[in-house]
Protein backbone atom coordinates (compact mmCIF):
# COMPACT_ATOMS: atom_id res chain seq x y z
CA UNK A 1 0.00 0.00 0.00
CA UNK A 2 1.35 3.43 -0.94
CA UNK A 3 2.55 5.85 1.73
CA UNK A 4 0.20 8.85 1.82
CA UNK A 5 1.97 12.23 1.96
CA UNK A 6 0.69 15.62 2.99
CA UNK A 7 2.57 18.87 2.27
CA UNK A 8 2.60 21.63 4.89
CA UNK A 9 3.16 25.02 3.29
CA UNK A 10 2.07 25.85 -0.25
CA UNK A 11 4.80 28.24 -1.40
CA UNK A 12 7.27 27.82 -4.26
CA UNK A 13 9.20 24.83 -2.86
CA UNK A 14 5.97 22.88 -2.25
CA UNK A 15 5.69 22.30 -6.01
CA UNK A 16 9.04 20.49 -6.00
CA UNK A 17 7.85 18.31 -3.11
CA UNK A 18 4.62 17.53 -4.93
CA UNK A 19 6.34 16.60 -8.21
CA UNK A 20 8.87 14.45 -6.33
CA UNK A 21 6.18 12.56 -4.39
CA UNK A 22 4.26 11.86 -7.60
CA UNK A 23 7.40 10.35 -9.14
CA UNK A 24 8.14 7.99 -6.23
CA UNK A 25 6.90 4.43 -6.49
CA UNK A 26 5.04 3.54 -3.32
CA UNK A 27 4.15 7.15 -2.48
CA UNK A 28 1.04 9.19 -3.18
CA UNK A 29 0.15 12.83 -2.55
CA UNK A 30 -3.11 12.96 -0.62
CA UNK A 31 -3.22 16.35 1.10
CA UNK A 32 -1.75 19.80 1.56
CA UNK A 33 -2.20 22.56 4.13
CA UNK A 34 -1.56 26.28 4.33
CA UNK A 35 -3.09 28.86 6.65
CA UNK A 36 -3.07 31.58 3.95
CA UNK A 37 -6.52 31.56 2.31
CA UNK A 38 -6.48 30.08 -1.17
CA UNK A 39 -2.89 28.78 -1.24
CA UNK A 40 -3.63 25.18 -0.25
CA UNK A 41 -6.65 25.12 -2.58
CA UNK A 42 -4.48 26.22 -5.51
CA UNK A 43 -1.85 23.57 -4.79
CA UNK A 44 -4.52 20.89 -4.31
CA UNK A 45 -6.18 21.78 -7.60
CA UNK A 46 -2.82 21.66 -9.41
CA UNK A 47 -1.80 18.25 -8.05
CA UNK A 48 -5.08 16.52 -7.28
CA UNK A 49 -5.14 16.25 -3.49
CA UNK A 50 -7.24 17.47 -0.54
CA UNK A 51 -6.68 20.98 0.79
CA UNK A 52 -6.72 21.90 4.49
CA UNK A 53 -6.47 25.31 6.15
CA UNK A 54 -4.59 24.04 9.20
CA UNK A 55 -1.85 21.57 10.06
CA UNK A 56 -4.01 20.04 12.78
CA UNK A 57 -6.81 19.27 10.34
CA UNK A 58 -4.47 17.73 7.80
CA UNK A 59 -2.64 15.43 10.24
CA UNK A 60 -6.02 14.21 11.50
CA UNK A 61 -6.63 12.78 8.03
CA UNK A 62 -6.10 8.98 8.31
CA UNK A 63 -4.87 8.88 4.71
CA UNK A 64 -1.83 10.99 5.66
CA UNK A 65 1.04 8.74 6.78
CA UNK A 66 3.87 11.25 6.36
CA UNK A 67 4.30 14.98 5.90
CA UNK A 68 6.79 17.20 4.16
CA UNK A 69 7.41 20.62 5.70
CA UNK A 70 7.67 23.41 3.12
CA UNK A 71 7.08 26.47 5.29
CA UNK A 72 9.62 29.33 5.70
CA UNK A 73 12.86 28.14 7.34
CA UNK A 74 12.18 29.52 10.80
CA UNK A 75 8.67 28.05 10.85
CA UNK A 76 9.61 24.39 10.45
CA UNK A 77 9.54 23.34 14.10
CA UNK A 78 5.90 23.92 15.01
CA UNK A 79 4.27 21.90 12.19
CA UNK A 80 6.95 19.20 12.46
CA UNK A 81 6.22 18.71 16.15
CA UNK A 82 2.44 18.71 15.58
CA UNK A 83 2.82 16.09 12.86
CA UNK A 84 5.14 13.90 14.95
CA UNK A 85 2.75 13.97 17.91
CA UNK A 86 0.01 12.86 15.53
CA UNK A 87 2.14 9.85 14.58
CA UNK A 88 3.13 11.07 11.13
CA UNK A 89 6.59 10.58 9.65
CA UNK A 90 8.31 13.90 8.91
CA UNK A 91 10.49 15.27 6.09
CA UNK A 92 11.71 18.85 6.56
CA UNK A 93 12.92 21.08 3.73
CA UNK A 94 16.36 22.59 4.28
CA UNK A 95 17.44 23.92 6.68
CA UNK A 96 16.09 21.57 9.35
CA UNK A 97 15.53 24.73 11.41
CA UNK A 98 17.42 27.96 12.04
CA UNK A 99 18.63 27.33 15.59
CA UNK A 100 20.06 24.27 17.29
CA UNK A 101 17.37 24.46 19.98
CA UNK A 102 14.61 24.32 17.38
CA UNK A 103 16.38 21.51 15.50
CA UNK A 104 16.61 19.54 18.72
CA UNK A 105 12.92 20.00 19.46
CA UNK A 106 12.05 18.46 16.09
CA UNK A 107 14.49 15.58 16.61
CA UNK A 108 13.21 14.93 20.15
CA UNK A 109 9.54 15.02 19.10
CA UNK A 110 10.12 12.49 16.33
CA UNK A 111 12.15 10.21 18.58
CA UNK A 112 9.49 10.29 21.31
CA UNK A 113 6.72 9.58 18.78
CA UNK A 114 8.69 6.78 17.12
CA UNK A 115 8.37 8.32 13.65
CA UNK A 116 11.00 8.76 10.94
CA UNK A 117 12.61 12.15 10.39
CA UNK A 118 14.58 13.32 7.35
CA UNK A 119 16.12 16.67 6.41
CA UNK A 120 16.04 17.58 2.72
CA UNK A 121 19.59 17.60 1.35
CA UNK A 122 19.17 16.13 -2.15
CA UNK A 123 22.75 16.89 -3.24
CA UNK A 124 23.87 13.82 -1.28
CA UNK A 125 21.84 11.60 -3.61
CA UNK A 126 23.39 12.65 -6.92
CA UNK A 127 25.64 10.07 -8.58
CA UNK A 128 28.57 12.51 -8.69
CA UNK A 129 28.34 13.26 -4.96
CA UNK A 130 28.27 9.56 -4.17
CA UNK A 131 31.32 8.97 -6.38
CA UNK A 132 33.22 11.56 -4.35
CA UNK A 133 32.04 10.05 -1.08
CA UNK A 134 33.14 6.60 -2.26
CA UNK A 135 36.59 7.92 -3.16
CA UNK A 136 36.90 9.57 0.27
CA UNK A 137 35.83 6.40 2.08
CA UNK A 138 38.29 4.33 -0.01
CA UNK A 139 41.07 6.77 1.02
CA UNK A 140 41.93 7.51 -2.59
CA UNK A 141 42.85 11.11 -1.74
CA UNK A 142 45.57 9.91 0.65
CA UNK A 143 45.83 12.48 3.42
CA UNK A 144 43.08 14.98 2.64
CA UNK A 145 44.53 18.46 2.95
CA UNK A 146 41.88 20.87 1.65
CA UNK A 147 38.10 20.92 1.32
CA UNK A 148 36.54 24.02 -0.23
CA UNK A 149 32.97 25.09 -1.05
CA UNK A 150 31.92 27.99 -3.27
CA UNK A 151 28.36 29.22 -3.80
CA UNK A 152 28.58 32.41 -5.86
CA UNK A 153 24.97 33.06 -6.74
CA UNK A 154 22.88 36.11 -7.55
CA UNK A 155 19.55 37.26 -6.19
CA UNK A 156 17.81 40.48 -7.19
CA UNK A 157 16.44 42.99 -4.72
CA UNK A 158 12.99 41.92 -5.91
CA UNK A 159 13.72 38.39 -4.66
CA UNK A 160 14.18 39.65 -1.12
CA UNK A 161 11.23 42.03 -1.40
CA UNK A 162 8.93 39.26 -2.65
CA UNK A 163 8.33 37.78 0.80
CA UNK A 164 8.32 39.49 4.20
CA UNK A 165 10.21 36.54 5.71
CA UNK A 166 13.11 36.70 3.26
CA UNK A 167 16.31 38.21 4.56
CA UNK A 168 15.18 38.16 8.20
CA UNK A 169 16.87 36.51 11.16
CA UNK A 170 13.51 35.42 12.57
CA UNK A 171 12.31 33.35 9.61
CA UNK A 172 15.17 33.08 7.08
CA UNK A 173 17.67 32.41 9.86
CA UNK A 174 20.47 34.02 7.87
CA UNK A 175 21.31 34.97 4.32
CA UNK A 176 23.51 33.51 1.62
CA UNK A 177 24.83 30.83 4.00
CA UNK A 178 21.64 29.62 5.69
CA UNK A 179 19.33 29.88 2.69
CA UNK A 180 21.38 29.32 -0.45
CA UNK A 181 24.66 27.65 0.59
CA UNK A 182 23.33 25.27 3.24
CA UNK A 183 23.16 22.40 0.68
CA UNK A 184 26.83 22.84 -0.17
CA UNK A 185 27.88 23.23 3.48
CA UNK A 186 26.09 19.95 4.19
CA UNK A 187 27.80 18.23 1.26
CA UNK A 188 31.24 19.52 2.27
CA UNK A 189 30.89 18.30 5.85
CA UNK A 190 29.52 14.93 4.65
CA UNK A 191 32.61 14.49 2.48
CA UNK A 192 35.22 16.00 4.80
CA UNK A 193 33.96 15.00 8.22
CA UNK A 194 33.36 17.17 11.29
CA UNK A 195 34.43 20.81 11.41
CA UNK A 196 36.48 21.68 14.49
CA UNK A 197 37.14 25.43 14.15
CA UNK A 198 35.91 28.34 12.03
CA UNK A 199 36.92 31.96 11.53
CA UNK A 200 34.75 34.17 9.36
CA UNK A 201 33.59 37.47 7.92
CA UNK A 202 30.10 38.36 6.69
CA UNK A 203 28.70 41.52 5.12
CA UNK A 204 25.62 42.96 3.44
CA UNK A 205 26.95 44.72 0.37
CA UNK A 206 24.51 44.64 -2.52
CA UNK A 207 20.97 44.46 -1.13
CA UNK A 208 18.74 46.82 0.85
CA UNK A 209 16.13 46.15 3.52
CA UNK A 210 17.57 42.81 4.65
CA UNK A 211 18.95 41.97 8.09
CA UNK A 212 21.25 39.18 6.97
CA UNK A 213 24.42 38.70 4.93
CA UNK A 214 24.68 38.60 1.17
CA UNK A 215 28.43 37.82 1.30
CA UNK A 216 30.25 35.41 3.62
CA UNK A 217 33.74 33.94 3.79
CA UNK A 218 34.99 31.41 6.33
CA UNK A 219 38.13 29.40 6.91
CA UNK A 220 37.76 25.97 8.47
CA UNK A 221 39.82 23.43 10.33
CA UNK A 222 38.36 19.94 10.15
CA UNK A 223 38.74 17.35 12.89
CA UNK A 224 41.00 15.40 10.52
CA UNK A 225 43.44 18.31 10.47
CA UNK A 226 42.55 19.35 6.92
CA UNK A 227 41.83 23.00 6.22
CA UNK A 228 39.11 24.52 4.06
CA UNK A 229 37.19 27.53 2.84
CA UNK A 230 33.51 28.35 2.45
CA UNK A 231 32.50 31.29 0.27
CA UNK A 232 28.83 32.15 -0.19
CA UNK A 233 27.07 35.10 -1.77
CA UNK A 234 23.87 36.21 -3.45
CA UNK A 235 25.67 39.26 -4.83
CA UNK A 236 27.76 37.77 -7.66
CA UNK A 237 26.11 38.72 -10.94
CA UNK A 238 25.04 36.80 -12.99
CA UNK A 239 25.41 33.79 -10.67
CA UNK A 240 27.69 30.78 -11.15
CA UNK A 241 27.49 27.05 -10.55
CA UNK A 242 28.16 25.92 -7.00
CA UNK A 243 31.49 24.16 -6.61
CA UNK A 244 33.24 21.81 -4.18
CA UNK A 245 36.95 21.01 -4.36
CA UNK A 246 38.70 18.20 -2.48
CA UNK A 247 42.49 17.89 -2.47
CA UNK A 248 44.86 15.45 -0.86
CA UNK A 249 48.36 14.01 -0.97
CA UNK A 250 47.31 11.39 -3.55
CA UNK A 251 44.37 12.89 -5.39
CA UNK A 252 42.07 15.78 -6.23
CA UNK A 253 38.47 16.10 -7.41
CA UNK A 254 36.24 19.01 -8.30
CA UNK A 255 32.45 18.92 -8.32
CA UNK A 256 30.58 21.69 -10.15
CA UNK A 257 26.83 21.53 -9.57
CA UNK A 258 26.19 17.81 -10.38
CA UNK A 259 29.19 17.32 -12.68
CA UNK A 260 32.68 16.13 -11.83
CA UNK A 261 35.12 18.52 -13.50
CA UNK A 262 38.36 17.03 -12.16
CA UNK A 263 39.10 13.43 -11.13
CA UNK A 264 42.85 12.96 -10.67
CA UNK A 265 44.42 10.27 -8.51
CA UNK A 266 47.98 9.02 -8.17
CA UNK A 267 46.76 5.43 -8.06
CA UNK A 268 44.57 4.85 -11.11
CA UNK A 269 41.61 2.49 -11.21
CA UNK A 270 39.92 1.04 -14.28
CA UNK A 271 36.72 2.78 -13.25
CA UNK A 272 38.38 6.22 -13.50
CA UNK A 273 38.22 6.23 -17.30
CA UNK A 274 34.49 5.53 -17.22
CA UNK A 275 33.95 8.35 -14.72
CA UNK A 276 35.86 10.77 -16.90
CA UNK A 277 34.01 9.73 -20.06
CA UNK A 278 30.65 9.99 -18.38
CA UNK A 279 31.28 13.38 -16.85
CA UNK A 280 32.91 14.82 -19.97
CA UNK A 281 29.62 14.50 -21.83
CA UNK A 282 27.55 16.26 -19.17
CA UNK A 283 26.98 19.92 -18.59
CA UNK A 284 25.03 21.24 -15.63
CA UNK A 285 22.46 23.95 -16.08
CA UNK A 286 22.56 27.05 -13.91
CA UNK A 287 20.46 25.37 -11.25
CA UNK A 288 19.53 27.96 -8.65
CA UNK A 289 22.51 30.20 -9.38
CA UNK A 290 20.38 33.08 -10.63
CA UNK A 291 16.79 31.81 -10.37
CA UNK A 292 15.57 29.99 -7.22
CA UNK A 293 12.79 28.31 -9.20
CA UNK A 294 15.16 26.91 -11.83
CA UNK A 295 16.03 23.76 -9.93
CA UNK A 296 14.91 20.24 -10.71
CA UNK A 297 13.01 17.90 -8.41
CA UNK A 298 15.10 14.80 -9.19
CA UNK A 299 17.15 15.03 -6.00
CA UNK A 300 14.02 15.50 -3.89
CA UNK A 301 12.53 12.45 -5.60
CA UNK A 302 15.55 10.29 -4.74
CA UNK A 303 15.46 11.45 -1.13
CA UNK A 304 11.73 10.83 -0.74
CA UNK A 305 12.25 7.41 -2.31
CA UNK A 306 14.87 6.70 0.37
CA UNK A 307 12.40 7.93 3.01
CA UNK A 308 9.66 5.58 1.80
CA UNK A 309 12.14 2.69 1.93
CA UNK A 310 13.19 3.73 5.45
CA UNK A 311 9.57 3.56 6.59
CA UNK A 312 8.98 0.18 4.98
CA UNK A 313 12.22 -1.37 6.23
CA UNK A 314 12.15 0.40 9.62
CA UNK A 315 15.61 1.92 9.23
CA UNK A 316 16.98 5.42 9.59
CA UNK A 317 16.67 7.67 6.51
CA UNK A 318 19.97 8.45 4.77
CA UNK A 319 19.82 12.06 6.03
CA UNK A 320 18.10 11.87 9.40
CA UNK A 321 17.60 14.64 11.95
CA UNK A 322 21.06 14.58 13.54
CA UNK A 323 22.64 14.59 10.05
CA UNK A 324 20.48 17.52 9.01
CA UNK A 325 21.52 19.44 12.13
CA UNK A 326 25.25 19.38 11.29
CA UNK A 327 25.27 22.04 8.57
CA UNK A 328 23.15 24.33 10.75
CA UNK A 329 25.74 24.16 13.53
CA UNK A 330 28.57 24.98 11.10
CA UNK A 331 26.68 27.99 9.73
CA UNK A 332 25.78 29.26 13.20
CA UNK A 333 29.46 28.96 14.19
CA UNK A 334 30.40 31.02 11.13
CA UNK A 335 27.87 33.69 12.10
CA UNK A 336 29.18 33.72 15.67
CA UNK A 337 32.75 34.15 14.45
CA UNK A 338 31.76 36.96 12.08
CA UNK A 339 29.89 38.82 14.82
CA UNK A 340 32.52 38.41 17.55
CA UNK A 341 35.59 38.61 15.34
CA UNK A 342 36.94 35.53 17.09
CA UNK A 343 37.70 31.94 16.17
CA UNK A 344 34.87 29.59 17.17
CA UNK A 345 35.29 25.97 18.22
CA UNK A 346 32.69 23.28 17.49
CA UNK A 347 30.55 21.68 18.77
CA UNK A 348 28.67 24.75 19.97
CA UNK A 349 27.45 24.67 23.55
CA UNK A 350 24.35 26.70 22.69
CA UNK A 351 22.85 28.89 20.01
CA UNK A 352 24.91 32.03 19.45
CA UNK A 353 23.44 35.51 19.71
CA UNK A 354 23.27 36.70 16.12
CA UNK A 355 23.32 40.44 16.74
CA UNK A 356 26.13 42.56 18.14
Explain this structure to me?
By secondary structure, the chain is α/β, with parallel strands linked by helices. The protein has helices at residues 12-22, 39-47, 55-59, 77-85, 100-113, 127-137, 157-161, 176-180, 182-192, 270-280, 298-313, 321-340, and strands at 3-8, 27-33, 50-52, 66-69, 89-92, 117-119, 144-152, 195-203, 215-222, 227-233, 243-248, 251-256, 259-265, 344-345. The strands form two sheets. Strands 13-12-11-7-10-9-8-14 form an eight-stranded mixed beta sheet. The longest helix is centred in the last third of the chain and has 20 residues, at 321-340. It is globular, with a radius of gyration of 20 Å. The model has no long low-confidence stretch (mean pLDDT 95).
The number of strands is 14
Order of helices and strands: EHEHEHEHEHEHEHHHEEEEEEHHHE
Please state the structural category.
alpha/beta
Q: Using only CA atoms, what is the Rg?
A: 20 Å
Percent of residues in β-strands: 15-25%
In helices, the fraction of residues equals 25-40%
What's the average pLDDT? 95
Give the termini distance in whole angstroms. 53 Å
Q: Largest sheet, described in full?
A: 8 strands, mixed
> Shape from CA axes?
globular
What is the topology, as strand order, of the major beta sheet?
Answer: 13-12-11-7-10-9-8-14
**Uncertain segments of ≥5 residues (pLDDT<50)?**
none
* Number of DSSP helical runs: 12
Amino acid sequence: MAIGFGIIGAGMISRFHAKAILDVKGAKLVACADRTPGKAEALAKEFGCTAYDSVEAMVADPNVDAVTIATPSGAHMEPAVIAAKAGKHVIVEKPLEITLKRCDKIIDACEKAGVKLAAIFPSRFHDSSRLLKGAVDAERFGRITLGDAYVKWFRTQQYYDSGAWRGTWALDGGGALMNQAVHTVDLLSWLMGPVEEVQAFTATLAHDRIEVEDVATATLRFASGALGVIEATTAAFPGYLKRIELHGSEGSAVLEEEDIKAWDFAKKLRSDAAVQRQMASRKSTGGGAADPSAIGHHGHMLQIQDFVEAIRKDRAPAVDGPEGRKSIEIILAIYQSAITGKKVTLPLKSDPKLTK
